[in-house]
Design goal:
Keywords: Hydrolase. GO terms for molecular function: acyl-CoA hydrolase activity. Pfam families: 4HBT. The chain has two helices and six strands; from the N terminus they run αββαββββ. With about 140 residues, the protein is an alpha+beta fold. It has one domain: Hotdog Thioesterase (Thiol Ester Dehydrase, Chain A, Roll). The protein has a six-stranded antiparallel β-sheet with strand order 1-2-4-5-6-3. The longest helix has 20 residues.
Length: about 140
Amino acid sequence: MDLAMDAGALEAFLAVEFPQVAADFAVDAVGADGVTVRLRVADRHLRPGGTVSGPNIFALADLAIYCAILARIGPKALTVTTSAAIDFMRKPAAGVDLVAEARLLKLGRVLAVGDVLIRSAGAEAVVARASLTYSIPPER
């Protein structure tokens, strides 16, 4: 299976289309099975108690699936989330990045479905699990 975008192309796309958050994330790997995306955890991502906030964990999951889809279909900015569910399973480790492993379960012409496992960098235990569905804009 051919990939339409590699890690560098995805990061460049994010820098143009989502400059407000692109620097928070790094695309660590892109492959036929999916992508690995990192949240570069900083103080602004923390909630009281010093742990990464739920909205930031969700943003990582959402961005990871978005990148997995674009890696396969190319830079279609209007590919959008239509459904999402996330389970927060444990507190992330303090002071380390979060790493999301996203894989596509189905990539159709109109819909894509994927899942994401998020871990603290260097840890085996899953912090969160998410399932997302995206709508892919029609070809024109």
